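Hi W.,

Here's what went into the run:
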Amino acid sequence: MKDEHIIAMLDGSPLGAMSEGELAAAGAHAENCSECARALEAARVSSLMLKSRAAEGFEPSPFFQTRVLAALRERQAAAVEFWSLGRLWKSAGVLFSTMAATTAALAALTFIAPQQSSQDVATNNRPYTAEDVILGQSNQSDDQMSYGQVINTLYATDDSTER
Amino acid sequence: MRLARAGDESAFAEIMRRYGPRVFRVASRFFRRREQVEEVAQEVFLKAFTQLESFEGRGSLEGWLAKIAANTCLNILRGSKRRPEMTASDMTEDEATWLDDKLADVATERHRASERAVVAADLTDRVLGTLSPEDRMVLMLIDGEDTPVKDVAELLGWTESNVKVRAFRARRRMREAVERLLARGGKPRDRIESAGER
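Here's what came out:
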């Protein structure tokens, strides 16, 4: 032990837990090893520091229980308030979404539906133009008579009646 | 216990009366001002009251409360600011004097005077403040209060080998911090003496 460094031993267990023999051996080694002597000194001071710090402490004050119970009631009241606020918020949410849905429906009925019907009316009331007639000729199906054919048919009918 | 679970305040008050000192003792290892200790203890009991349902009764109620207290303290310390580096120049004059006296004689009775104890505790707190909350807890329990490793493991929810490794590292860190202070400890004292001569 005398020739072995004691630093690992000092870090391995509390100084207070070491036997007298171990401490004596550590002291003997430290006499000839400056590094271990410093470590031993620091370990002694550390141990003393921790012991003195551990001896410090408080007992609960006489008002401690009252304080905790008051805080507990406060928290419980806050929790209740939070839940009631939550319920209020939920109800407000339902009301708001209902109102929003109603507004959207009304808006749809007011603006979208009348536009569609007025578009239909406008389309139905539009007079035929020359362009429509000419372009319409090319778009007509085979079973329909062309405008010229109608004129020719009419004139042919008139001619035959005159005769 | 059954009544406390049902929300009976007087039953809960009885729990506080019975186990308050233990919770205070745990909190005192981390905090030195009475208000801080009371605040932590209050938080511990409020948590305990809301989590009483989760207490399965496997261990003792005292142990369960101590565990909550230890975790609460660790969480508060983890959330607090970065650990400061401590140097000899940070020491107050009283602290430097105390440290010098320790060099002269580590274990004389005169150093146990209450005034000296306060100075020592101040310095200790600052040295411990440079360690991580976990290291600090382990050292205070094992080296400060001679708590068995098994009990520390149970309290912190760690394995015994983990506690031993932690304690080894924490002890080394603290010893090195004190060694550095002792190496430079003469300087503030010299400064005090030279200031006194003037």
